[in-house]
Sequence to fold (947 residues):
Amino acid sequence: MRRTTLTVNGVRHELDVEPRELLVLALRDHLGLTGTNIGCDTSSCGACTIHMDGQSVKSCTVLAVQADGAEITTIEGLASNGEMHPMQSAFNEHHALQCGYCTPGMIMAAVGLLQENPNPTENEIRSDLEGNLCRCTGYHNIVKAVRAVAAG
Amino acid sequence: MATTEQPARHVGARVPRKEDPAMVTGQARYTDDLTVPGMLWVAFVRSPFAHATIKGIDTSAAKAADGVVDVFTGADLADDFAAPIVCAWPIVDDIKIPEHWPLTKDKARYAGDKVAMVVADTRAGAKDAAELVEVDYDPLPAVTDIELALADGAPILHDDLGTNLSMTWRHSEHSPVPARGKPEDVFPAADVVIKEKYRIQRAVPNAIEPRSIIVEPSPAQGEFTMWSATQIPHIVRTVLTLMTGVPEAKLRVIAPAVGGGFGSKLQVYGEEALLLVGSRKLGRALKWTEERQEAFVATTHGRDVVQEVELAADRDGTLRGVKVRIVCSMGAYMQLLTPGIPLLGAWLYGGAYESDAYDLEINGVFTNTTPTDAYRGAGRPEATYCIERAMDALARELDMDPAELRRKNFVPADAFPNHTIVSGLIVDSGDYHASLDRLLEALDYEGLRAEQKARRERGDNRLLGIGLSTYLEMCGLAPSRVAGAIKLVCGLWEAAQVRVMPTGTVQVMVGVTATGQGHATTFSQLVADQLGVEIDDVEIIAGDTKQMALGMDTYGSRSLAVGGIALHLAGEKVVAKARAIAANALECAEDDLEYDTGTFTVKGTDKTMHVKEAAFAAWTAHALPDGMEPGLEATHVYDPPNFSWPAGAHGCVVSVDTETGEVDIERYVAVDDCGVVVNPAVVEGQVQGGVAQGIAEALYEEAVYDEEGNLSNGSMTSYLVPTAAEIPPIETHHTVTPSPTNPLGVKGIGEAGTIASPPAVINAVIDALSGLGVTDVQRPATPQNVWRAIEEARQ
Fold:
């Protein structure tokens, strides 16, 4: 077991984790933050996307101990003062989700995308979201939602 | 207080989904998000061999490992099951259905077959211990190809059956409704006969949420609660009762938020039975969550069909007959509906077209592969692919435009309502010419043909292709008598319960469970209009057999066309009771009341009573009509009198690079007629997602087995689920011909996109290359397969 400090959604936690424990399992099993989902075991689907020190990362490819000292934002920490983040509202407004399972990761990836490129073209949105799989929507409305947020 | 203002109508409006706020904030609870006190973890030992005799299993090292509670083999659990895994659709009397136990005892018959179950106190501990179970396998030759499995000398999966052929179903022999005519009376004299052969590759459904199961026992009461990522909690409950002997009244099955299903969760899996039996044996709660690479072999696959089709036609393009023989892989065993999946397309190989004769033969074959079962569309994408490819082949043979050939043969709009198609079933309504006209206009078909010609003439190496798919499908499954006539062991009715609470909110219990379809929103729209309440005043309760004991669950695009009608009719009963209460309170005859969106008005007066007021009166019961029961609620169980018949026209425009074989979708246009639309946003979402899955089948996805029977692309790194970069924007249009079969005029839209799109894409690829002599391309149309088709045509 390794003592690991994670600041998640502004709250500092000290955890004892096995060195092989994935960050996503530390978030889900130790901290009860189950909004971050697991969809594969090969870093392909992006359902587990979170923000770590301001970057969007797949939390299944990071060991919890590697995140020691990091600032982490999960889907649960995206809304502020009870107000949904504009990306969350846009996903609702543009029907960009169906089963909702890929949605937390997709939203975190989309927010990260706009932080790096505030005015992406449709093609840039599509290629930047390549790391996140959705089986329900055909991506059509996800792209629409991201464009709407970018347009303000 | 009387309510006089009429709220806006909700049916037909683009209402944002009620489900979303929980889902976009991470508050939705899927099965793997749940924890039960004292819960243990399960891992399964699965065969790495596609075909092997099991000579022995040594569990001692696993049992001795830290944190391991127990390890079970098939032999250990022999007395814990009342019956093996259930196949509920023995489609012919002489079908061969092998015994299928949750843990195989004698042989492994596919790579992934379950051999042992490990129970430990942690997720990782169970997985570690599973690797310590030593199984002595004696590998046998394997067969994964459908046609090779029927060849002489092929390895036999089930020794006691002596053959890999499970069954043969013939329309002429087994259909409860006769075809219009026999092919043998039509084909010999036909001007033109074309013969084609198509292969529909095996697909892996890949819902993004892997399966997950928790069973919590209450040993003192003999009760069990199961949470499962399933589309069918009611069927799971009933089937597990048959398999384990746990009484139905003592087994509660809950489907919490479910992260997509697409047919792969329309199943009662061995894992569900094993967790139930294991929790009964140990008196402890058990949990198992599938890993993705495990899911690739452990969750049912779809398709894997070889089709031989013949069409007979007159020289002018009039279609005369359709004759088809298909061979379908069952996989290694029968699951819940495996043999019935091709039957769901068995009346659709004639498409939306008139002709004189029809026959179809279905063969089901065992191969050393993961069992197949429903995958979005189930049988209907296969039928649609076959007839839509064949219509294009016929158009090429006759040198006719494929749009013109379709138009010439469509069942005309004036044949409806209730037209008997060539295969013998009665189609409710439709206007196929209208859908095609709308599509051709949206595409600028003439302009595209001119552009195609121009590119060909200038020797462009990026050739343009236009593919059409004018599909007809049946959904709204299904009239129970028909289900019985085609040997499904259950009925396909649906149930709903509507309860107006004393304070005017409405509780609605439905038997259909959502896996992303937006039931809570769509059903709330129906109830809001019917009872004159706000959408947020309606609470939809589903996916819990204790809260709603009646239900036949979700598949076959039935939620609205069957479940929604049950809900509507339950609501009608509520309105009828409220009317009696209102007439009593307003001192008039019931016939003197007009009703509109929640409000009863005494004709010619301003005296009114709202349903909410009637609900309060029904609760106080101070002044109800004599003999009336207190409370305002009703249940309706609806058995549809017919299927519902969505149809439409999809068009795909591709550029194909003749040097690299790369296919680029330039446009995809869908025109769908699903009858009356309740929520256009939800309907478009279903079409877009369905089309994306169909494009994936046409261009990207294929489960590939190697010669030894290993799934060689069994992970998301090697099996190409397409991303936003591959799937194009999808343009959606609608035509509306209400179904005359049900009071809402609805038909269903969940599968239409997946049914229509693969032939639209493949027809477009072939259309692009037809000038080079290409008449076929293997699915998926990868650059390699397209390049090969071009090279073969050049030789």
Remarks:
- Chain B has three domains: 20-27+493-638, 34-140+209-259+265-298, 387-474+644-794.
- Chain B touches chain A through 56 residues (CB under 8 Å).
